Amino acid sequence: MKIHTCALFDLDGVIVDTANYHFLAWKKIASNFGFELSKENNEKLKGVSRTKCLNIILELSNFDLNENSFNYYLKKKNEIYLDYIKNINSENILPGILKTLNYLKEKNIMIGIGSASKNARFIIEKLKIVPFFDVIVDGNQIVNSKPDPEVFLKGSKALGVLPENCVVFEDSDSGIQAAKAAKMTAIAIGTPDKFSNYDFCFTNFLKIVKSDLDNLFTSKNYI
Ligand code: B16
Ligand code: MG
């Protein structure tokens, strides 16, 4: 029997639609290697660290870089990405998120961020939602990127909550695998075909209604 006392949110693609800007920035970088990054291949980059993303793109492009060029493109990608999101503000919070965060606060559920992004805190500050979160674990604090469970386990540990009492909201297959590896309840956000395994799947947060939240957070679950 599980009682969920903590909710851990991925950032990009769950709280805010920055996932598309990561895609556009990587598409520009990939064009330097003569490679056209498709939306389908972009799924492999979601939830994955910047370094790992570049390695995946180089493998797909059949291209090789020396260390200096590798670091140059990592820096370049982040510059392009930061330029895309320079005007990001609370209007960019995805529909249904604030309603969910307010619900969780009202029920005294712990709330955390588990993001692979090194820009996570900067974005959360721009969105003006910092006070909702009891912990923020981002790409600066982890060694192993999703699907490794490190980012979520660090979050639950910081909050003093057992992994089995945590619910994770994630839009990437690697993130859902990380949540499952952490033995947390994994809620996939997106269409079911994108995920290999999950506990529940919702197209977006507007589809998560109050009775779903009640089932997850106020009743004992038998998952
Ligand atoms: P950065 P999430 C992840 O964030 C993105 O999904 C992934 O596409 C990106 O490569 C990664 O952050 C690293 O981001 O370059 O900003 O450090 O989905 O785990 O919140
Ligand atoms: Mg994501």
What would your notes on this structure say?
By secondary structure, the protein is α/β, with parallel strands linked by helices. It folds into 2 domains: 139 residues, HAD superfamily/HAD-like (Rossmann fold); 67 residues, Putative phosphatase, domain 2 (DNA polymerase, domain 1, Orthogonal Bundle). It is built from 9 helices and 6 strands, in the order βαααααβαβαβαββα. The chain has a 6-stranded parallel β-sheet, sandwiched between helices. Helix 8 links the parallel strand 4 and strand 5. Helix 1 packs across helix 4. The chain is globular, with a radius of gyration of 17 Å. It binds 1,6-di-O-phosphono-beta-D-glucopyranose and magnesium ion.
Write the layout of secondary structure elements.
Layout: E1 6-9, H1 19-31, H2 39-42, H3 50-61, H4 67-84, H5 97-106, E2 110-114, H6 120-127, E3 135-137, H7 150-159, E4 166-170, H8 173-181, E5 185-189, E6 200-202, H9 210-217
Helix pairs in contact: 1-4
Bound molecules: 1,6-di-O-phosphono-beta-D-glucopyranose and magnesium ion.
Magnesium ion is lined by residues 10, 12-14, 19, 46-47, 171-172, 175.
List keywords for this structure.
single chain, 223 residues, alpha/beta, 6-stranded parallel β-sheet, 9 helices, 41% helix, binds 1,6-di-O-phosphono-beta-D-glucopyranose, binds magnesium ion
